[in-house]
Specification:
282 residues, alpha/beta, Rossmann fold, six-stranded mixed β-sheet, 13 helices
Length: 282
């Protein structure tokens, strides 16, 4: 079996732990340990058994995140902290929607973690075959803004259906005076970044859209600013141009410094880079 076949097997049986474990083996063979661990952790959360699977999943405890790009490290650190606050423990079940290579699993080593990510296991928001109220929490980090406006309410409905206790979003929203379209266009023009292009095409959502939707569904909704647009914007360019100049070691040093700062010191409430949206399901 090759990786494409392993991804297809997960797509054909999204809740089959053996399919996720086999995909993890494909990532290990390619030397990609972060997605491998996410696949193994998904297999365990879906009921996979065996000492070998537990040992493979446990290798994630040895993978350092200290040198991770600051923007991603900051998001995942904040997401971890917020999830722990909501759960009031480390032992909870979590479905991570659009979680990239599954690095969040490494920040939550004691959580029953499952990943849904088209680029890693071929699963997207349309593949939520989980039973109603089947996981404690569902999170989506920097995903909602990539959903076309006409599909956003259905996306949120799907997350709430699966969650037993909480849904947590972390993503950018349009801030009045923030000139987000100009900032995104600069990023498209200079970095040719697909994510920025998609932000422009979909349009950054308004925070009121989600709070109004929650009100119509009878859900309690809390919002909290996260990060700072200026820091996030500049960190993106420091990493990009340092690597172009062949000075990646210097970029890594800057990332390690930023990653060592308390997350609460890096919040600009009037121009945050993102917002937490907490939906209390129960």
């Amino acid at each position: 079996m090759n990786r494409a076949e392993a991804v297809a097997a997960v797509g054909a049986a999204p809740l089959d732990p053996a399919a996720h474990a086999a995909l993890g083996d494909m990532f290990v063979a390619a030397g990609e340990l972060r997605p491998a661990v996410a696949c193994y952790r998904s297999a365990l959360a879906l009921g996979g058994e065996g000492d070998e699977l537990h040992m493979k999943a446990a290798t994630g405890r040895d993978i350092s995140m200290d040198g991770l790009d600051h923007n991603r490290f900051y998001r995942l650190s904040c997401l971890r902290d917020e999830l722990r606050i909501l759960a009031d423990c480390d032992d909870f079940s979590l479905l991570d929607i659009g979680g990239g290579d599954g690095a969040l699993a490494l920040f939550l080593p004691d959580t029953a973690y499952q990943l849904i990510e088209p680029g890693t296991n071929g699963l997207g928001a349309e593949d939520l075959h989980h039973a109603d109220n089947s996981v404690d929490m569902v999170c989506a980090c920097h995903v909602y803004e990539h959903i076309p406006p006409g599909d956003r309410e259905a996306f949120l409905d799907g997350l709430v259906r699966i969650a037993r206790k909480h849904v947590l979003l972390l993503n950018p929203f349009a801030v009045e005076g923030g000139r987000h379209e100009e900032r995104l266009q600069i990023t498209v023009d200079l970095l040719n970044a697909d994510w920025a292009r998609e932000h422009l095409e979909c349009g950054l959502p308004e925070l009121d859209e989600v709070t109004a939707w929650a009100g119509r569904r009878g859900l309690t909704c809390r919002t909290k600013p996260n990060g700072a647009t200026g820091t996030s914007f500049l960190a993106t360019y420091v990493n990009h141009y340092a690597r172009l100049a062949g000075r990646s070691a210097e970029a890594d040093r800057i990332n390690r410094y930023l990653n060592s700062l308390p997350t609460e010191l890096l919040v600009a409430p009037n121009l945050p880079s993102a917002w937490f949206v907490h939906l209390a399901v129960s």
